[in-house]
Amino acid sequence: MTGVAFMLGGRTFRHGVHPAEHKEATRSRPIERMPFVDEYWLPLAQHIGAPSKASVSPGQKVQRGEVIAEAGGFVSTFLHAPVTGTVKAIELRPHPSGKQLQTIVIATDAFASQKITTLERPAQDADAATKAAFIQRGGLVGMGGAAFPTHVKLQVPKGKTVSFVVLNGCECEPYLTCDHRVMVEQAEQVMRGLDLILELTLAKRGAVGVELNKPDAIEALRQAIGTRPVEVVGLTVKYPQGAEKMLIDALSSREVPSGGLPLDLEIVVQNVGTAAVLAGLFDHGIPLIERAVTVTGPGIRRPANVMVPIGTPVRQVIEHCGGLLPSAGLVVLGGPMMGMAQKSLDVPVTKGTSGILVLDQSTKTVSEEPCIRCGRCLEACPMFLNPSRLAQLARAELHDELAALHVMDCFECASCSFSCPSHIPLVQLIRVGKALVRQKGSSQ
Amino acid sequence: MFEVVGATLPVIAAATYYFGVTAFLVIAAAVVGAAGTEWLFARDRGWSTLRDGSGLLTGVLLALTLPPGVPLWMAFLGGVVAIFLGKVIWGGLGKNAFNPALVGRAFLQAAFPITLTTWVAPLGGTWHVAPSTLAPPLMKPSVDVISAASPLGLSKFQHQSTDLWSLLVGNTAGSLGETAGLVLIVVGLWLTIRRVFDWRLPLATLLTVALFSGVLHWLSPSSHPHPLFMLCSGGLLFAAVFMVTDPVTTPLAPRGAWVFGIGVGVLVVLIRSWGGLPEGVMYAILLMNAVTPLIDRKFMPRRFGGKS
């Protein structure tokens, strides 16, 4: 909300905020490869849905790319060894969410070739269900942060059709540049992934939404389009454009119904990083065993975009990037708006980890002041809710009122907290309110 | 908050220029009353409620709505009432339904109607202190001020118009902060550019007054003054910049802001044209403050992805 410059230019959604972008440190750094480390920690729950079920046991040798855990249901996915080595243990370990969760620990075989064991690919003319099962077998999840199993979205339910596929290249979180680099360096793979999604969903058209602060990515993608029925659309820089409902609004001026899915508008949204991995899966049989992570922030010595094997301890990734500066403060996994602050560096990079952000100690902590009803949170909320009121109701634990004011529409983008001049922890309170409503709903 | 306090400085300067050092004394008295009451009731929170500047602002705004000749003790009392009745009993900053400065002024107008409607002509000299300013509490102030009617009073009771230039420059009788129209317009534009307040509120108010009084003037030019006169006279510009824009006592959502502004505009014209008083801005705002919770309820944004 700091001027009008960001409002000029491309298409966008309504409301939202414009935090300082802080992408300079890493946006032009090519993705580098992280060397192998001694040990990998692979939580069975790295995605939305049921946790995977371990299919290996301690002492067992595993090859890089081999399945180590199978899907625990339809909304669940497979897990693969990111490295050739030995399963050391399956035990409770700290997870980025703050919980202790079942984790497969793999000790690296320092003398192995680390050649990837690829998956057997389905025939070109295999049916959609077979291909969806293959995607699940490849362990694919949405890599924008939510980590929703990809095969679920790409298996169009009976009676539904998809006419439009959207690739999400917004990367609206400040600091993060890994999607940006993937688009620049792997534009062909991204487009190839989009082809596959169009094919699977039988959609006619596709679009890639990219914010205008990534002109090189827009250029690279446009070069790669060829004859595809696809458009690369530059979007005004605004947060949270990468939320799928906002992106759809920006591209097509249509609103996903409250409580509904993009599918209700015959649209499927996938992250650009996911599309690139999808191409690798179908073309080479490579499962999701590594991902691009932006390691950045004022507290890190050498900011970089790094291709990190899933399960690498965060501490090792930070060391790879020169370690922490003496001034380092809070460490956040993900971006500053929706990421999770960590109390320990001994957690693994998971499939949903888009960034490791190290803030410094000068990052202000502020004290809360009374609400002066300025209404800025209302003008920030992309879901057109009343965050200040919801926060009050959450404090008073009034779950019926919370539900009546549609608290469940909130997807916790934190634009309200960001815009509040009184520093009220609005999104945190609303999160409590959502939990109250859920609790109430399940107890009935 | 301090940015708004800062924005009152040019207005205070204009008041001091036209009404002499007496303006300054009145402001000081109201601020002492307001900030003192704030401190008294917020001691358990230390000085934190004073540090946000809202008590100071209430005192300054109250003083700027008072006639220049008001006794200092009345200004002080107004400050006390503004904070106590207008803010403290509601639960402090952000909880009050009515604009605290206007609560203070409404109290004074009810308690001391004559003093609050006795205006003096400006330009009595920089060091001029009206004898009534220093009147002791509850004593009848000696009415030796050279009283002068305000432009709205002249218009209503004597059908005498005041030229626009005087209204803009501020060379007229009126409350301390309300006479210098040009200063208020510039300050208002500045606060709009700085995004300190929601521009919809003053814009809706002023547009409505202009339109409504414009229609009346067009129907009957002899009994209804020109819309430009309506805009620039009385406390309207001052209120549009400093009172209508108070976030606490006005609606949250943009559509609500339009409704609030239109309501204030309509009430101002109604009171000025058909009410017993020449000026109605204060009551217009207080009345709309009263219905703000209702407006909030009715005019929230439609939720994303919901039925319109």
Structure notes:
- By secondary structure, chain A is an alpha/beta fold.
- Chain A has three domains: 5-29 and 121-284, Rossmann fold; 32-112 and 290-360, Roll (Ubiquitin-like (UB roll)); 376-443, no CATH class.
- In chain A, 27% of the residues lie in helices and 20% in strands.
- Chain A has 13 helices and 17 strands.
- Chain A has helices at 128-137, 150-154, 178-185, 187-201, 215-225, 244-252, 272-284, 314-320, 376-380, 387-395, 399-404, 415-419, 426-443, and strands at 32-33, 39-43, 53-54, 61-62, 67-70, 79-80, 85-94, 100-108, 164-169, 205-211, 230-235, 267-271, 290-296, 304-309, 328-333, 340-342, 355-360.
- In chain A, the strands form four sheets. Chain A has a six-stranded mixed β-sheet, with helices on both faces.
- Chain A is globular and about 65 Å long.
- Mean pLDDT of chain A is 93; it is low at 1-8.
- By secondary structure, chain B is an all-alpha fold.
- Chain B folds into two domains: 1-148, no CATH class; 182-299, no CATH class.
- In chain B, 58% of the residues lie in helices and 0% in strands.
- Chain B has helices spanning 2-19, 21-41, 48-51, 54-64, 72-86, 100-111, 151-158, 164-169, 181-193, 200-219, 227-232, 236-242, 254-274, 281-298.
- The radius of gyration of chain B is 19 Å and the shape is globular.
- The mean pLDDT of chain B is 88.
- Chains A and B meet through loops of A and loops of B.
What characteristics describe this protein?
heterodimer, A: 444 residues, alpha/beta, Rossmann fold, Ubiquitin-like (UB roll), 3 domains, six-stranded mixed β-sheet, four-stranded antiparallel β-sheet, 17 strands, 27% helix, B: 308 residues, mainly alpha, 2 domains, 14 helices, 58% helix
